[in-house]
Design goal:
Helix content is 26%, strand content 36%. By secondary structure, the protein is α+β, with helices and mostly antiparallel strands.
Length: 387
C-alpha cells in the first residue's frame, strides 16, 4: 500500500531541503521515500536544495524541475518549493535523464527509455512515467511522440515543461542531485493498480477556422496567407480588445491559438510579436494545420480542472487514491490571478481528503488512451496515484 507525504516551504537552498526532509521523514514514519518529486522556484539554489533532501530523507530516486508557480493542498504561490514523497513497496520507480533536446530528440528519448525496467519485465500491469522537460529547448511534442513509439504505446505519460516564473530565460530539470538544462527527465512508475490521468482545457473556439500557411517550430508566420499579427489585430478590433504589439501578453493570455486535432483543439499560447508580423508561441505550431482563436472564463477553467480530476478518479477501478498531481500552465495562473485559487479548490473538491501538489508549467504533457493526448498549453492535467 502506497503512502504519500505532500510538503512545501518558502525557505531557500539547504534550509529548504532540510525542512522538507524533516517533514517527509515525520509523515512517512521514518521511512525513506521510494520516490521524491520536487517542484522548485527558479530562485532556489537547486543544487543545495537537492543535496539537503538527499542527505536528509534518503530518497531512492528523485526527480523534479524548476517551476513558474508551485502549489499543494495547503499552499500556493511563487517562490516556493513543493514536493511529493512516495513510500510504495508495491510499486517500482526508476529515474532517467536525457540531455541534448535541441539537437537530438531521438537520442534523449532513447536514453530515457533505456532506464525503463517495465519494458523487460511482465511483473507489473500498469506502466506510466512522469516526464519533465526543459520546455525552452522546444520540441516537447516530438519528445512525447518518440517516447510513445520507443515504448510501443504501453506506457502512459504525464507531466510538463519546467518554468522560470514567466521570464522565459532558463529552465532546468532534476535527476537525483543533478541539475540540467536542454534536457528531459522521467520517473518510471510501475504498478499493479491503475494510475488515473484526466485532461481538459475549457477553452472555446471562435467561429473563424483558418489554415496555418507558414510556421517554423514555435514561430507562427501566417494564417490563411495573412501575417499572423494581422489576424490577431482583426480579432482584437472585432471583439473590442486592446492589443499592444510591444506589450502583447495581456491580450494573448485571453486569446490563445487552438490547433485542431482529432481529439479537440490543442492550445498554443502566443508570447511575442516579431518585426515581420510573425508570432512566437509557447509550443510548436504545425504548418498546414487548421486553427482558430480561443477564449475562456475563470469558471470554465475551474470546471475543466474539476472534470479532469473526475476523469482521473474514474480510472482508479475502485482503488483508493493516495495522492494527486495537477499540471497547469503559467498562462492560466497569470490570466486568472487570484481566481487561480478557484481552480485549485475545484480540484480539491473532487479529491476530497486526498492531497495533491503540482506546478505551473511551460506546457503540459499527457499521453493516455481515452484522454486528449500530446503536448498542451493552458490545459489542466490531473494524475491520481493509487494507495
Amino acid at each position: 500500500m502506497a503512502e504519500a507525504a505532500v510538503v512545501q516551504t518558502r525557505a531557500s537552498g539547504r534550509a529548504a531541503g532540510e525542512e522538507l526532509a524533516a517533514s517527509i521523514t515525520e509523515q512517512l514514519g521514518g521511512a525513506s521515500p521510494d520516490a521524491l518529486i520536487v517542484f522548485a522556484s527558479p530562485d532556489q539554489d537547486h543544487e543545495a536544495l537537492l543535496a539537503a533532501l538527499q542527505a536528509g530523507c534518503g530518497p531512492k530516486v528523485m526527480v523534479g524541475c524548476s517551476s513558474a508557480g508551485e502549489f499543494t493542498s495547503d499552499a500556493a504561490g511563487t517562490g516556493m518549493t513543493a514536493a511529493v514523497a512516495l513510500s510504495a513497496p508495491e510499486m517500482a520507480f526508476t529515474a532517467s535523464l536525457g540531455r541534448g533536446l535541441r539537437e537530438n530528440r531521438e537520442g534523449v528519448a532513447q536514453r530515457i527509455v533505456e532506464g525503463f525496467e517495465g519494458l523487460a519485465s511482465a511483473g507489473y500491469r500498469y506502466r506510466s512515467a512522469l516526464v519533465l522537460t526543459d520546455a525552452l529547448a522546444g520540441f516537447a511534442d516530438e519528445l512525447v511522440e518518440r517516447l510513445t513509439l520507443l515504448t510501443g504505446g504501453i506506457y502512459r505519460f504525464f507531466g510538463g515543461g519546467a518554468g522560470d516564473d514567466a521570464r522565459f530565460q532558463h529552465t532546468v530539470v532534476f535527476c537525483g542531485t543533478e541539475v540540467a538544462s536542454d534536457a528531459a527527465v522521467a520517473l518510471e512508475i510501475l504498478s499493479n493498480k491503475p494510475v488515473g490521468i484526466g485532461v481538459r482545457h475549457g477553452w472555446n473556439p471562435s467561429p473563424d477556422r483558418m489554415r496555418v500557411t507558414a510556421s517554423e517550430g514555435m514561430l507562427l508566420g501566417s494564417l490563411n496567407a495573412v501575417p499572423a499579427v494581422e489576424v490577431f489585430d482583426a480579432h482584437a478590433e472585432a471583439t473590442g480588445q486592446a492589443f499592444d504589439h510591444a506589450e502583447p501578453v495581456p491580450f494573448f493570455l485571453h486569446n490563445v491559438l487552438g490547433v485542431e486535432s482529432p481529439d479537440g483543439y490543442r492550445l498554443r499560447v502566443p508570447l511575442a510579436v516579431a518585426d515581420d508580423g510573425s508570432i512566437a508561441c509557447a509550443a510548436d505550431v504545425a504548418a498546414g494545420a487548421t486553427a482558430c482563436i480561443m477564449a475562456t472564463t475563470a469558471t470554465d477553467a475551474a470546471d475543466a480542472a474539476a472534470w479532469a480530476t473526475r476523469a482521473a478518479l474514474e480510472q482508479m477501478d475502485g482503488h483508493e487514491p493516495a495522492v494527486a498531481f495537477l499540471f497547469d500552465c503559467v498562462a492560466t495562473r497569470l490570466r486568472l490571478g487570484q481566481a487561480f485559487g478557484d481552480e485549485l479548490a475545484a480540484v480539491q473538491g473532487e479529491l476530497g481528503t486526498v492531497p495533491f501538489a503540482g506546478f505551473n508549467t511551460y506546457g503540459q504533457i499527457a499521453q493516455a488512451e481515452g484522454q486528449f493526448s500530446g503536448f498542451h498549453n493552458c490545459t489542466a492535467v490531473v494524475v491520481v496515484l493509487p494507495r
